[in-house]
Structure formats: C-alpha cells, structure tokens
Amino acid sequence: MNVVVVGSGIAGLTAALHAREAGHSVTLVTKGAIGDGSTGYAQGGVAGIYGTGDSAAQHAADTIEAGAGLSDEIAVGVLVRDGAARIAELIARGVAFDRSPDGELLLGREAAHRHARIVHAGGDATGAAIAQSLVAAVRSTDVTVVEGAFLADVLVEDGIARGIRVVVDGVASDLSADAVILATGGAGHLYAHTTNPLGATGDGIAAALRVGAAVADLEFVQFHPTILGEGPAFLISEAVRGEGATLIDAAGRRFVFDSHPDGELAPRDIVARAIARQAARQGSPVRLDATMIGRLRLAHRFPTIDRVTRERGFDWASEPIPVTPAAHYLMGGIVTDLDGRTSIRGLLAVGEVARTGVHGANRLASNSLLEGAVFGARAAAALEAPWQLPPMTVRGGQANGPTHGDGRSSDVDDHGTAFSRAALQRLMWDHVGLLRSEDGLRYALTTLRRWIATAPDPTTVAEREDANLLLLADATASAALARTDSIGAHFRESVAAPLLETV
C-alpha cells in the first residue's frame, strides 16, 4: 500500500515507522524540517509507567476526571492499555528517559495526576529527545521524506482520499496515495499568545473541513497556565508545580486554592482561569515561586527552563518569576475511531489534529505524547483492515462538517477592523479564549465572517495559512457559541471579562 503521512511529530513519525515496518511504501511530508513542530518543544513527559499503588485504571480515572467527564472511556482504556508498550518502544528506539542510580525509570507527577507515573528525558527536554530518536529511526529506513512541503489540500475522489496537494518552493504538486494519515498538529496560532511553534496554523483540520470530514470539540482549547510573563512565549512546565512550586499573588498568597482544593495541582483549565482572573484583579502578573525546590535541584531537574529564565534576567532559585497563560493544546479536531479512521474513507488522523475522545473537555498533563505514540501505531496497524467509519454523533461533543454556527449576527459593530493575522489572533484571544460570553462570541463570528467573505483567493503559503486560520476560527467560535454550558476548558460568562495584557 502507498501511504502518505503528513507531519513529523511523535504521531506522524510513529505512524510512518510502523507503516513501513508493516511493509507499506511510505512518504512522510512535513511543513518544515523533519522533527520540527510541537513534539520537540514538549518539556513534560510521557504518562504511563505505574509504581506501587498505581495502575492503568487509576490513570484512566485521572484522565476522565481531568476531561470533566467528557472523555470517551473506551478510547481512554486503549490509551492506558497500550501506553507501556509504546514507552518501551521509544526506549528501544533510543530515547534515554531519566533513570535513578540503580537504573530504574524516574517517575514524576504533574497536575491532576494522583500518582507519579510520568517519565521524562533530559529533565525538561523530553520532546526533543523523542523527536531526535524518532527522526533518526525514520532516517535509517527507506521512508521518503519531503521537507518544506505545505499541505494545501486532501484530494478526494468518489468519497475516498486519494492523496494530497502540497506546495514546495511555491510550486503546487499532487502526491497520490492509497491512504493519507494526517499528523499535522494543532492550531495554537489562532491566538495572540501561544506555546506552539510558528507552523501550528491548523492546516490539517482545515484541509479535512474542506472535504467534509467530521470534526468535534473545537471549543475545547487548553491554555497552559504558566508561560514566562515577560518576553517571547516560553513555557514553564507543569512539572515545576509537581515538584512543589507555588503560584502567588502580589501579596504572596497562594490564591489558586480559592478555585480548587488541589491548588496549583488542579486541572489546567482551573489553574489558567484562576491566574487570568487574579492578574486582572491586581493589574500585574501573578508569580510562580520555585525557590523552595532549591538551586541545584532546579538546575538538574529543569535545565532548559533554568537556562532560559537566567538568559531572560530571572534568578528563579532566589525569587518568584512572572507567569501568564497561553494557548497550548486543542482537545478537539478531526473525528476518528480507535484506529485513526475519519469519516472520509482512506483518510486517517493521529495526534493533536485528531479528536480521539481521549481528552474530553480538558487534557490531562503528559497524555499528549502518549496519545501520539499510541494512536500513531494503531493507525498504521489498521491500514489494511476493513474500513469502518467513526460514529458521527460523538460522545462528549458535537460532530460538524465544514459549515458551522447558527448564522446570526452580533449586535456589536466591529468598526470595520481590517483583517491581519495579528487582528485575528487578538480577536480570538479576547472573545474565544480563556473566558467567553455570548456577546463576545457573536461579535467574533460577525468579524470572522466578514473577513472570510472579503478574503482573496490565497496564493502564497502565508495566505493559505491565514485562510486555514480563518476557517478554523469560524469553526471554533461556532462550536463555542453552540455549547451554552461551561465545562472544562470551555468557560462561559454572562458578560465578557477583560484579561490583563501581560506578554
């Protein structure tokens, strides 16, 4: 079988390797250089190794609780059941996870996990270690790698995916395939502030929408609670709080306990909203106090964060540092079954681009790398199996085709704001971000649809990215408007509350 994999993070690299090892001819297409993307930026680890008193069942329970009860329990069961095997596979492919002096894997704990069950590599460089090892593994095979290739469209004939159209050096060309696996990541650059690399512009989801593939749960956008509050976005891993760091207000008080009994280790959506509200109240960023961890431990456990904070002029071993939330991870995406199949025959999706049902309304920390490895392998294994379409009525969310929203306009005048990517990102941050209201969502949709109606046909890659962001912004705002209750990462207020501009 001729298989095209689009994307070279953990999900795409895993799918490509497994597909080739199963005997398929594989072409891996990636927007930048192979290994670019969100995986390499991941400071957190991979959940799925269980110590005394822990189990896969408890990992599943934590995942479902963090997902506000909207996670698909069967999908979560697959995730935790296959997790140990995928971690063992990563080790076999050369990922050097951190170990104790006696050779045992070191297990860390992060927010909303009841046990230490997360493996890391290089302290806070897990994603980079994984990307490096998997890229080397792909390079050692005869997988064809096409770098610098922008996904323009999925090619569908008679309801079946037959390949993709890519743009390389400004020239469009078609790649035929018997199966297409999308592993293009998320859409963090919908927002003014994000932890995502520049390439995260929703290209895979937008391409799937254009051919009528079902999507779901786009309203569930996870905002990481802690990026450095000054300078370019830089993530401060949740594992820092797992080691004992606290969040304090201007008076030095641990304010997150006002929102949840677990304080700093509450689910990410709760912590992020608590930070945003406190920062708005006091008119300045909140601070992360890691001084109690100690200088040597901080440098050893978090070498990347330690280096970058010092380069930015902060000595986090002796003083608290300013932090603020930023868009981090998309829980929704292209609807798939347990093997990555979408509603378009021949089209599969894995990783952040997919909506497997695992994450529900809020992703549990360190489940994303695990999901990419687990479902990347499963998609490759299912390539020659009989095709079964995933259900279009999705537990925990609504499945949509390329048309979204109720079409009603906002009564708020947008004053004719001209489109730019920065204007789009500011609109989404203000009105489809951490805190949402009906008026704000309608205002966003009115503006987005005017921009869409007047947008010229894209010709350059940047213009194609903008078109993808506009399409996905409309879908996200529409899904947020349709879900009138607040749950997980989707939080509705009666009146929009302004957020402090801190980054």
UniProtKB/TrEMBL annotation:
The name this protein goes by in its record: L-aspartate oxidase
Annotated keywords: FAD, Flavoprotein, Oxidoreductase, Pyridine nucleotide biosynthesis
PANTHER family (UniProt xref): L-ASPARTATE OXIDASE, L-ASPARTATE OXIDASE, CHLOROPLASTIC
Presence of the UniProt keyword Oxidoreductase in the record: yes
Ranges for domain FAD-dependent oxidoreductase 2 FAD-binding: 3-369
Native organism taxonomy: Bacteria, Bacillati, Actinomycetota, Actinomycetes, Micrococcales
UniProt catalytic activity: L-aspartate + O2 = iminosuccinate + H2O2
Positions of region (Disordered): 391-413
Biological pathway: Cofactor biosynthesis; NAD(+) biosynthesis; iminoaspartate from L-aspartate (oxidase route): step 1/1
InterPro entries per UniProt: FAD-dep_OxRdtase_2_FAD-bd (IPR003953), FAD/NAD-bd_sf (IPR036188), Fum_R/Succ_DH_flav-like_C_sf (IPR037099), Fum_Rdtase/Succ_DH_flav-like_C (IPR015939), NadB (IPR005288), Succ_DH/fumarate_Rdtase_cat_sf (IPR027477)
Subcellular location: Cytoplasm
Domain of life: Bacteria
Molecular function via GO: L-aspartate oxidase activity
One matching Pfam family: FAD_binding_2
Record keyword Oxidoreductase present: yes
Family membership: Belongs to the FAD-dependent oxidoreductase 2 family. NadB subfamily.
Record-annotated Fumarate reductase/succinate dehydrogenase flavoprotein-like C-terminal domain positions: 421-494
Record EC number: 1.4.3.16
Primary localization: cytoplasm
Cofactor(s) listed in the protein's UniProt record: FAD
Function field: Catalyzes the oxidation of L-aspartate to iminoaspartate, the first step in the de novo biosynthesis of NAD(+).
